[in-house]
Amino acid sequence: MTEKSILVHTLVLPEKLYFSTISWYPYKAHAIQACGCTGSGCGLRAAKKERIEEKRGIKVMGEFAFQTLRESITSAIRSKILTGELQPGVKLAEQKLAEEFGSSRAPIREALRQLEQEGMVEYSRNVGCSVRRVKPEDAYEIYLLRANLEMTALRYFDCKFPEEDLRTLRGILEEMRNVRPGDLSQIVENDNRFHAVIVQRAGLPRLLKFWDDLNYGNLLVGANSGSNHETLAQRQNGIHTKLYEALASGDTEVACRAVYAHYMEPMERMRSANSAVQAADEAAK
Question: Are residues 35 and 44 in contact, defined by beta-carbon separation less than 8 angstroms?
């Protein structure tokens, strides 16, 4: 078959794919192989389908690349917040961040929206986006919600942990013992992994989603708690070992009380300390 016969055969098709912005020549091999210019069973339609699938593949890869870039930028900004490189109240300008990361503003905007959902940044009129300041009432609410979600999970499955879960918890305790002092990110990650075992065992996807949405809020509370992060690494294992013993007892109410105390006793101490400071300030006026 000549190139002319292929061209003529192509022209009688209702589709115009081969005469848009691309050449028909890449499809010549498909036409010769499947067509034979008999008018039936023509391979040109198959070639068109292949081209469309190729375009879709390029589109999917582009979306994947954008998503990966956005996730990388989100992780980098989150890390800067947690390490204190970006302090609470600092304004986050899209253009400046785009220049820093060598990207357009689109993935920056998506990253900041993700961090807003996590509670790490906030948008306000006349300021734009800035690193969120964690107020005492924010910390109290986050810990109260986490405690109650975990207690709900424990009551749902009656604190009956399989040995596999208990083994996982012991492994995390060992990691807590060996964490590098001052590594706040790892400290709080270990904390989240430990408590996730409780919530995941319930098998309630909405409860898990509610709890998971508080994870980075928990991380931000830790970063802004004012605690000595060096000593926090040392205390973490002991605190969670006590909680593990209550969970391993199989007694639902014992475990629930331990979870509540684990979260809320530090918050009550914080509230008492803040009240004392406020009272002192009032007395000094």
Answer: yes
Q: What is the value of pTM for the model shown?
A: 0.64
Helix (H) or strand (E) holding 128: strand 128-131
- The answer to whether 236 and 182 have CB atoms below 8 angstroms apart is no
Both tokens assigned to 224? 């802004």
Residue 125 CB coordination number (10 Å):
5
**Residues 44-78: pLDDT tens digits?**
555 555 555 555 444 444 454 556 888 899 988 98
Mind listing the pLDDT tens digit for each residue in 144-195?
Answer: 999 999 999 999 999 999 999 999 999 999 999 988 877 777 887 888 899 9
Pairing of strands 128-131, 121-124: antiparallel
46 close to 87: Cβ distance less than 8 angstroms: no
Distance between CA 113 and CA 27 in Å, rounded?
44
Of residues 257, 260, 255, 266, the one with CA closest to residue 232: 266
- Cβ contact 121:130 at 8 Å: yes
- Kindly give, in sequence order, each residue whose CB lies less than 8 Å from that of residue 4, ignoring residues fewer than 6 positions away: none
Residues 100 and 75 sit within 8 Å (Cβ to Cβ): no
CB 31 within 8 A of CB 6: yes
- Name the residue among 93, 122, 105, 116 with its Cα closest to residue 69: 105
